[in-house]
Specification:
The chain is globular. Helix 1 runs parallel beside helix 2. The chain is built from 8 helices and 11 strands. The chain is α/β, with parallel strands linked by helices. The longest helix has 12 residues.
Amino acid sequence: MSKVFQFKEFSVAQDHCAMKIGTDGVLLGAWVSLQHEFSVLDIGTGTGILSLMMAQRSNAELIDAIEIDGPAFEQAVQNFENSPWGDRLFCYHASLQEFADEIDDSYELIISNPPFYTDQHPSENNERTTARFEDAMPFEHLTDAAAKLLAPNGKFAVIIPYKEKESFVALALKNKLHLNRACSVKGNENSPVKRSLLEFSFSEKTLQEEHLTIEIERHVYTEAYQNLVKDFYLKM
């Protein structure tokens, strides 16, 4: 795999990140609804992909990212500096709890592709374990922090395993975060739903439910998926 992933408007070095560029992050970055957000927070940024996508898609003047892993933090900073939007992007080397305790600001959009491998044994690669395992950022911590850091009219968006959807929605509701929009994602027409894209706010609204299938067959993508990611992937 190339150590640099080239998108249409930016590139992402990923050789120092345990978790490489994957479909999940790109899906979330392309799917989340944007209006006129001034401030964005990317929790657990990894390579910085979500922050970079938000910079491309929006005019947000402040895009902050948090990353606990040292090498990943340094790589995200490098990717931000090498992008066309370096003056709008900033990365903090901190845990979510540290950041939430120290920051008084609120954000109009909070976005996260959190680690969620809750039912597998830790690998021997500690960095990859930290990146992949929910223990590194329990969903309860994520929903608590999002509620604390979210502006009153803001949105909070995540991508998680479909099987975790109900429990995550319940945790969010404990923090007065209501599910406004959801998209069920599956690989192809015959495969089970694997991922849930979820968007929350403090306002209770009529739920918008969507469905997305990625492939018709191997490496043949559906029109809906192509339309969603065409502004990012070179080959779309």
